Amino acid sequence: MSIQFFIVLLYIVLLFGVSFHMKRRADKNPAEYLFAGRKFGPCLVAFAITGMAVGAASTVGVAESATKIGMAAGWYNAAWSIGAIIMGLVAAGKYRSLNCTTVPELFERSYDKKARIISVIGLSIIMICITSLQYVAGGSILSALLPDIFTMRSGMITSAVVFIGITAIGGLWSSGVSNLVSVSIIYLGLIYSVVRVLARDGGLAGIAARLPAVPGLDWMSPFSGLTAAMMLGWVIVMTTQAITAQGPVQIACGARDVQSARKGFVLGGILIFPIGFLSAILGLAALAEFPDINPTKALPQIVMSLDPFASGLTLAALWAADVSTACTILLGAGTLVSQDIYKRFINPGISEEAYVKANRRIIFVIGIITLWMAFNMVGIVRMMMIGLSLTTAFTLVFLCTMFAPGLCRKNTAFWTTLVGILGLVVWTFVPAVRIFPHVIYFEWLICIITLLIVRAIDKEPIRQPTLKKAE
Question: pTM (2 decimals)?
């Protein structure tokens, strides 16, 4: 048994140990299972949002981008960091004080049933498709770093077993506490590998000296490889989805009190920030070491050039990044289906004990469906990078509902969300409308216009949601 495989196996055993330990709490009632009994302190909130944010795209994907645009690739994570901090300062406390469970539930409170239906359709599609992406990423990591043990398919199946098992067994308790382990491994693995690579290659100056000359590109500059419009687009996308995607919302709702939600997201933003730039350094080191490298293999190849302990630890870190993201997103997808479809419209009188069991079955079914999607729709990766922009409609409606209710009318949520969905379809299939550098600018424009038109036409005001006294 290789050292690398042994480290990964030990990590899997540790995760399932945490899950079964937390199962006793999760079994108590749906609030414990889906929202950790709303008992997350700032530390658990911070590690939960960091674990969700730092996935394969934030490590392997950033290293790949670094071989093309240099150190500026780290701004992918920095954008997530900014989004998490803004969520903490603006929205996390609101969600916690409302004691809500999902954005669709909040929309029904303030608007009507059709607002809940259209929003749960949009959010469920996003969450389910992103979950399938995590299997693809998990399979890629395992097959690239342990090719003698895993194929792409067996790596995806192994990833699915771990993702579904951890999430179904312990719910948010399992996901949150597991993220304490996963985020620690991510930091330890990346920092250890960066130190080893810098010591071996003569530091950043030594790496820079061996990089190919590209006119107008300073490989080591954090700003040279990105236009201001693209960088701002990343920040807007990440901030938009941080405020209304089910994963961050569920973490905020699981906080012990308003202050825990706020502080946890700000701390999480600080934890997220450095990981992208650490991954970018490894990507640049790979390009310097292997000039003809396939960019998608930059991080795996530079990692495997280190000693077995360093490569095994970093392998566990990369896969940990995928595990931590997948579990939170899978739970979020399951919550949307169970809360906003099954319990709301199919079985509203279900008992608490039966509802916990139903949640586990729903998560299992979603896990199998998304694994099938991963096997058959690998092209979904590109679509989901655009699909995150769909949260624009939800974020705009949420912010106006909370801070400018005078701009909202009874039909605002429905029409703004519908136009956001249709706008994304048009952007995807009608190239003529792509006059902006990123779809997020288009989404914000059409959603704001729709909201203002509805305000002018519709005269019926919304029901302002009642806030619970801050704890």
Answer: 0.86
